């Protein structure tokens, strides 16, 4: 036997010995439930029963390239929303797609004899526990990240990336080739699989659609453990199901994303409005033009002091004297934020184009501010704010965010009530508002939007300050969100939630409307045991507890239990 073969033989024996040892140890450890509850952490009303000890040992017995851990589950017991603490039984750190497939097939094999569910976790940026799997298995998708981000040039350039790759890393790598994805989220330190399971929306969406519209191909591990490559023409039902599918049909392990030539610089402009009608009319005007800005967003400012002086740290006023006289105190204002991409040699023509576009707008003249920054600095702008909040200990706090998609026909009524009567300030976080074109969104995906040509994203993004009271208190903010939701329902505004959260399946049925039947049928086809994404609370896995003898017989026969 050669040296290489000998080493391989000893490694295999050591691995087998370690696996047997772990089975013996773990089979003696009783299952534990460790739930915490304070002002910022809660648990759902119904939790699955704990798994029998044999389940742990069965997980250890899996032959994986990566590994499973049990003692660090507290690290994935919470998400960015920071309102629930639900530790899983185990964490899978996959080194390959086959690791994920093996885990899924194993849980399918156990059937309803275990309550194991699976949550694929990227950066854990969900808001309502969607990235959690209480007493289940959390898959750390960032462990799957491939060292190579493969970029292909040509008439239709694209990049092949792992589902666990961060968008910021994709941006940095594609820029080396003068290329960039077309559509973004405002925050880039999120994984590909995470944003594609929802939509991925930012100020470019009016032109390119959300991120799910800019994908050529996916590799998916379904709820049955099958590894499937899919696209618009290959296994198209699965392809469109997964995009915007809230993790219900499969885990995105690889994606092929459309690219375009990347600019070097951006012209970044902000202007203010006191009249909502003028503000929304100008936004809609800009997204309807053929030659327009490359990014159109906006935000609401309620009762902010010294607003324009705060802008001066990053932006320059067009008229400094007039800007210094403007008072924002006690007012509800609307900021239009637009960006034009350019390269240095195109600066003159860019200034002419932006000047013409701005001249068509009806903003408050003294509030025109602008700056020019590198493309990557603009796209990664939220990360700068993150670092400041982390330094103050204000990042890992509860985030009771509410994201709504509102039809154009309802936006004025919504704004009048919500921004003037329900919300009294937004000192605890931004309020985003901007329109998009329905024609740029693919209707075949699982994403649900209002049924109008133009609809608005409105995002209330507060942070609840620990040990605070009044408008910064978590309970106050949650009640405020409920008031907004209740008003939308009572006024029949036909609003849809983005990053939706509901407590009952009936509410989910209402959300999907006439598309619910298709959604449920696809769930049964690709994840019949309802193993995936339990934190969404759309479907619940049916379990039945077996005795150790019955459990061993189930393992021996290899027959999965039926889903009811």
From TrEMBL:
Signal peptide: 1-33
Catalytic activity: N(6)-dimethylallyladenine + A + H2O = 3-methyl-2-butenal + adenine + AH2
Protein's name according to its UniProt entry: cytokinin dehydrogenase
Top-level class of the enzyme under EC nomenclature: oxidoreductase
PROSITE patterns (alphabetical): FAD_PCMH, OX2_COVAL_FAD
E.C. number: 1.5.99.12
Cofactor annotation: FAD
Keyword flag Transmembrane: no
UniProt record similarity statement: Belongs to the oxygen-dependent FAD-linked oxidoreductase family.
Keyword annotations of the record: FAD, Flavoprotein, Glycoprotein, Oxidoreductase, Signal
GO MF annotations in UniProt: cytokinin dehydrogenase activity; FAD binding
GO biological process: one example: cytokinin metabolic process
Source taxon at top rank: Eukaryota
Domain FAD-binding PCMH-type: 84-262
């Amino acid at each position: 036997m050669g040296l290489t073969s000998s080493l391989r033989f000893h490694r295999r024996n050591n691995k087998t010995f370690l696996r047997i040892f772990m089975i013996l140890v773990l089979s003696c450890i009783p299952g534990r439930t460790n739930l915490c509850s304070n002002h910022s952490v809660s648990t759902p009303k119904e939790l699955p029963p704990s798994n029998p000890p044999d389940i742990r040992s069965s997980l250890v017995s899996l032959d994986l390239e990566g590994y499973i851990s049990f003692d660090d589950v507290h690290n994935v017991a919470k998400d960015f929303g920071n309102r629930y603490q639900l530790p899983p039984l185990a964490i899978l750190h996959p080194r390959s797609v086959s690791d994920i497939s093996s885990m899924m097939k194993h849980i399918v094999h156990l059937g309803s004899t275990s309550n194991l569910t699976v949550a694929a976790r990227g950066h854990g940026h969900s808001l309502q526990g969607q990235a959690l799997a209480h007493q289940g298995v959390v898959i750390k998708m960032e462990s799957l990240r491939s060292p190579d981000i493969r970029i292909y040039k040509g008439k239709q350039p694209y990049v092949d990336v792992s589902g666990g790759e961060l968008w910021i890393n994709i941006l940095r790598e594609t820029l080396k080739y003068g290329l960039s994805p077309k559509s973004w989220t405002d925050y880039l330190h999120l994984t590909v699989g995470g944003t594609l399971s929802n939509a991925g929306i930012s100020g470019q969406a009016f032109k390119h659609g959300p991120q799910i519209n800019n994908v050529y191909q996916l590799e998916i591990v379904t709820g049955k453990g099958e590894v499937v490559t899919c696209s618009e023409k290959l296994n198209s039902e699965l392809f469109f199901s997964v995009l915007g599918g809230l993790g219900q049909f499969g885990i995105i392990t690889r994606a092929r994303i459309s690219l375009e030539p990347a600019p070097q610089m951006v012209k970044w402009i902000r202007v203010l409005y006191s009249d909502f009608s003028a503000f929304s009319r100008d936004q809609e005007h800009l997204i309807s033009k053929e030659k327009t800005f490359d990014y159109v967003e906006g935000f609401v400012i309620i009762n902010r002091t010294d607003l324009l002086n705060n802008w001066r740290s990053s932006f320059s006023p067009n008229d400094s004297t007039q800007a210094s006289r403007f008072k924002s105190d006690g007012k509800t204002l609307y900021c239009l934020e637009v960006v034009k991409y350019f390269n240095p040699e195109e600066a003159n023509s860019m200034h002419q184009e932006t000047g013409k576009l701005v001249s068509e707008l009806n903003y408050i003249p003294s509030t025109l501010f602008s700056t020019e920054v590198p493309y990557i600095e603009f796209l990664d702008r939220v990360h700068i704010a993150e670092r400041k909040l982390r330094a103050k200990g204000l990042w890992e706090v509860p985030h009771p965010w509410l994201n709504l998609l509102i039809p154009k026909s309802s936006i004025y009524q919504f704004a009048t009530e919500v921004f003037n009567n329900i919300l009294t300030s937004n000192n605890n976080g931004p309020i985003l508002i901007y329109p998009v074109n329905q024609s740029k969104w693919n209707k075949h995906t699982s994403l649900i939007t209002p049924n109008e040509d133009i609809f608005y994203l409105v995002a209330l993004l507060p942070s609840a300050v620990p040990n605070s009271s009044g408008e910064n208190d978590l309970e106050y903010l949650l009640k405020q969100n409920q008031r907004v939701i209740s008003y939308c329902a009572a006024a029949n505004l036909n609003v849809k939630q983005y990053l939706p959260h509901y407590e009952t399946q009936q509410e989910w049925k209402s959300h999907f409307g006439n598309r619910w039947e298709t959604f449920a049928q696809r769930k049964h086809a690709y994840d019949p045991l309802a193993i995936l994404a339990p934190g969404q609370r759309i479907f619940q896995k049916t379990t039945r507890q077996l005795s150790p003898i019955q459990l061993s017989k189930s393992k021996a026969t290899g027959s999965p239990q039926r889903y009811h």
